[in-house]
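In response to a reviewer's request, we include the raw inputs and outputs for one of the modeled complexes. The two entities were modeled together in a single run.
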Amino acid sequence: MKQKLFVYNTLSRKKEEFIPLNAPHVGMYVCGPTVYSDAHLGNCRTYISFDLIFRYLTLLGYKVRYVRNITDAGHLEGDADEGEDKIAKKAKLAQVEPMEIVQKYTVGFRDVMRILNTLPPSIEPTATGHIIEQIELTKEILARGYAYEVNGSVYFDVEKYNKTQDYGALNGRHLEDLLNNTRNLGGQDEKRGKLDFALWIKAKPEHLMKWPSPWGVGFPGWHLECSAMSNKYLGHQFDIHGGGIDLVPTHHTNEIAQNVAACGKNPATYWMHTNMLTVNGTKMSKSLGNSFLPEELFSGENDILNKPYSPMTVRFFMLQTHYRSTLDFSNDAMEASEKGFKRLMNAYDLLPGLKTSAQSDVDIESISNNCYAAMNDDFNSPVLIAELFECSRIINSVHDGKAKIDEQNLEALKKLMQTFLVDVLGLKSEAAANDELPNVLDFIINLRSEAKKSQDYATSDKIRIGLQQIGFQLKDSKEGTTWTKI
RNA sequence: GGCCAGAUGGUCGAGUGGUAAGGCAGAGGUCUGCAAAACCUUUUACAGCGGUUCAAAUCCGCUUCUGGCCUCCA
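The model returned the following structure tokens for the whole complex.
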């Protein structure tokens, strides 16, 4: 408990001791979703990872302000700053207001997050709710000479910035490399440099989401919102800034540049990035068409799945891998996780009924220390889970009368399981009844069919009427028996 | 092509200098009306080649392969 916490910092590429700027307060900003379509499993993994981090920091006694934005404007489709706003495009296709798209996918995202048992962030600010802050930030960057205006758009001057600052600090690249290896994009005549990016973009007449600004009617660039909102809610400097590892080279690099240009400071002490979820070794992404929706997993309706998996199985599956490793998704891996998860939860359910002895064969304190040590080592949930399996072995052994535990150790064990299994990993028993109901009914129906076959109609009627009384109607046909809820 | 990661048993996946966690699967056993569960035991793993070191999965170099980023991405 008194051990130090170490976190891996992308800036230094090392694990560093976690020292908050203003303990016991901790500020954590995580880049949230762009709400133009459903969140897929890869997106979920990132937010589950930061949920774990949020939960553990809270356990350590920190008062965490966890800010996770909702991007509802400014995120452009396709190349650079010439594409169409993703949300506006979707709205046009569906013939609805952009904010209807935003509402639909925001609600959907929150539902999935709740189903996966992630805690809501402290603040969930939106880009459209902070247009003024973004305009002010753009003015500041212009005033300091790191941006320039062209025809109603404002661009960040990367090469000028790099003269006094290290633009590639986060991903460890030199500007020359970046310049030499950047694809030449068409239609970027307004930009002075290849790497320059938009802070404010002039809106074309047909553009749906636009706001007045000192440079004319337009909308903010994607990277700007995170700088503006982290500034507003966490200050110029805060502790942790996180997101998916794919945000490092562009989004977070630009974000740092904006903050340094405007305020002279890198906003976050620790930059933390979660690795990708892959399918057959390839990154899950919408554009590659290999993305999975959580709902497909919960329903089992996907070609590579043999069956549905519950939300807690999914959560457990993800936590069994360290957040900085890639995680490959497959039916076999899910099946293994499902069994492991059930084993863990079965043991947890046995806990209240355990009998104590005068002596104890087990030492819970050392396991507890191991649990803290695992999490203090850059939130190593796989190692934590291995310790919890050791607990489950102990619980089963005591339950079978093959091991003894005294009162004191049992209390410690209960506390440990509550703390790490429930509070930190965020796992919970699932009301299996509803999920398993169809199987149960099928089983009963089969029993009844057998009774019918042997002309035991007393039994078959008893089953049919009994089920009817508790709300299920059986229907016999040539093809077999089906049921409906009355 | 450039830059950056990674390669651990049947499988998933921890481990950054000193006897290779854990889950799933497999084998044997205990228990059991059957089955399941549970418990005990157990099996061939550090991509390859060099180097540093008393000692390397771990550090360094080269090779091979895989992935990420370089365009939007969690």
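As requested, we also summarize the result in words. The mean pLDDT of chain A is 89. The radius of gyration of chain A is 27 Å.
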